[in-house]
Specification:
- Helix content is about 65%, strand content about 5%.
- The protein is mainly α.
- The protein folds into two domains: about 5-55, no CATH class; about 80-210, no CATH class.
- Strands 1-3-2 form a three-stranded antiparallel sheet.
- It starts with 5 loop residues before the first strand and ends in a 7-residue tail after the last helix.
- The relative contact order is 0.09.
Length: about 220
C-alpha cells in the first residue's frame, strides 16, 4: 500500500488555487501541530491525490478560469488608474505656478525656516544652528523651501491622497517639480540636479520600469 502524500495550504495556493476554491472542492483538511512554532495555529494538510483529482474536474477549471479573468481585469483597471494619475500629475507639474523671490530674501526665508525647525525640535544633546551651515547645505534648504512654499507641491500631493498609484507617481512628480525649479531659479539648478540624481538612485527601479519596486 503506497504512502499517502500530503501538501500544505501554501503549496495548494501556489498551484493556483484560492481559499474559496479550497473550501468548495477539497474535503476538510487534516490538522497537525506546527513543527516550527509551538504556539502557532495547527498546519492544514490535504492529500495530494484529492488536490490532483479536483484539478481534473471541468467545473473546477471553469471556476479557476473565471477567477483568473477577474484578477486580470482588476489588474488592468489598476494600471489604467495609475497611468491616468501619472498623466494628470505630469500636466500639473508643467502648469505649476512658481513664486519668484529676490535671492537675498529667498535665502533669508529658507534659513529662517530651517532655524525655526531646529528650535521646534530642540534637543539639548544635539544643539543645532543655521549659523554654521556651508553653501551646499544652504542651497539644499533653499530648494526645499521653494518646493514646499513657493510651489503648490504639497497641495498637489495631498489632492492624490487615497488614489490608486499615488506612491508610484511620487518620484516622477518630484523630479518634474525639481526640473521646473531649476528653470525658475537657475542659481540653484546644480542643487536641483543633485536632488534629482539622488531621487533616481533611490527610485532606480521606478525610473527604469515605471513601477515601484515593492521588494525594496
Amino acid at each position: 500500500m503506497s504512502e499517502i502524500k500530503y501538501i500544505t495550504q501554501s503549496t495548494v495556493l501556489q498551484r493556483g488555487w484560492t481559499k474559496s476554491l479550497i473550501d468548495k472542492y477539497l474535503p476538510a483538511p487534516k490538522e497537525v501541530r506546527n513543527p516550527h512554532y509551538r504556539c502557532a495555529a495547527p498546519m492544514k494538510l490535504w492529500e495530494l491525490m484529492d488536490v490532483e483529482n479536483a484539478e481534473k474536474r471541468a467545473d473546477f477549471n471553469s471556476d479557476l478560469a473565471r477567477i483568473r479573468q477577474r484578477k486580470n481585469n482588476s489588474a488592468k483597471a489598476v494600471e489604467t488608474k495609475k497611468r491616468k494619475l501619472k498623466e494628470a500629475m505630469e500636466e500639473a507639474a508643467k502648469n505649476a505656478y512658481i513664486i519668484l523671490l529676490d535671492d537675498k530674501e529667498l535665502r533669508k526665508e529658507a534659513i529662517d525656516q530651517q532655524q525655526y525647525w531646529y528650535d521646534l525640535h530642540f534637543d539639548w544633546r544635539h544643539e543645532r544652528s543655521t549659523e554654521w551651515a556651508d553653501e551646499e547645505t544652504i542651497k539644499r534648504w533653499v530648494v526645499n523651501y521653494i518646493r514646499h512654499n513657493l510651489v503648490n507641491y504639497d497641495s498637489m500631493l495631498f489632492s492624490n491622497k487615497g488614489k490608486t498609484g499615488k506612491d508610484d507617481v511620487y518620484p516622477f512628480f518630484k523630479k518634474l517639480i525639481l526640473t521646473r525649479i531649476a528653470e525658475a531659479y537657475p542659481n540653484y539648478a546644480d542643487e536641483c540636479s543633485r536632488q534629482i540624481e539622488d531621487l533616481e538612485q533611490e527610485y532606480y527601479y521606478y525610473f527604469e520600469t515605471g513601477m515601484i519596486d515593492n521588494d525594496r
